[in-house]
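Below is how a single chain appears once it has passed through the pipeline. First comes the sequence as given, then the structure the pipeline wrote out for it. We keep one example in the README because the format questions we get most often are answered faster by looking than by reading.
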Amino acid sequence: MKWKTGLALATAAMAAVAAMTAAKADDYPSDTVRVVVPWRAGGGTDTIARALAASMEKIAGKAVVVDNLTAGGGNAGHVHVKNAKPDGLTMLLNGSSDLNTPIIFRNVPYALEDYACVGAVYQTPTWVLAHKDQGFTDFNDFVEKAKTEPGKLTVGVGSLISAHYVLAKALLGKNGIDARIIPFDGGGPLKKAILGNQVTIGVIHAPVLLDAVKKGDINVIAAGGSLENITYKKVRDTKTVDQFKTPVEIGVVRGLFVPKSTPQEVIDQAAGLVEKAATSDDFKKFGAKFGFAPIWWDGKKFCDFLQKENKEYREIKAEFIDKK
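Resulting structure:
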């Protein structure tokens, strides 16, 4: 009967291991979760991160804090998460284009391959805005004016390392427009320039300046992608840039990343928490105020999008930026 005793012991041991594994999974997160944002507090990505963190904390019953690590133009935040312990407790929250453009345009100490995707929570297009005094109702109005005044019109963008710049170059190049691109030191100064009618048009991430659009002070004349998720119904039918000879989709998908070495089980646990937060009533209420309904993409869909965006941006750079 010894074999029966041995079998019973082995079965008990296996059950104990299974119970420990289940308990470990149930314990996630076991400690404070840190959501690293590589940009200053107050911006769109930071605002989304803080709303998501609040929902995650409510669901997890553990502290979820947002760390703004901005040194080195955002390099500090990216590198911190790249080198973090792969336990799912340190995540990067960033926009797809804000991760891809530095990789494409600069020599930075990180790459897409350094991260595993947890999932995406927000998708917003880059849109093209004009002060009402310009009199533009859509992008064709700008095209026609640019052809009569070559070299005189201006296009404001947040920086030369941005989706704004990529879209501006593609639009000008595809439509054969001779206009000057003016880079600003971020979205804040660009917003002021658009509101002050200091640039002919401005390219910036939606829903920036949505309040001014609602008031009628600013017109949306094109969008780098569909506006179907925007809460302001009047601009949902805005023409996308592919209707203006520019067959691209340029915007920003904001999501979370962990170090590449993170075990799949841990990634799945983190994704489960983020998905619950992203689809919660609290986060949906935030979205209604922010201007766009949240989304939920799993890690694979998010990573596939990042690779597609990276390829598209490189093609635009080769065709319209690198050429002298």
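The chain is about 45% helix and 20% strand.

See the next section for the split statistics.
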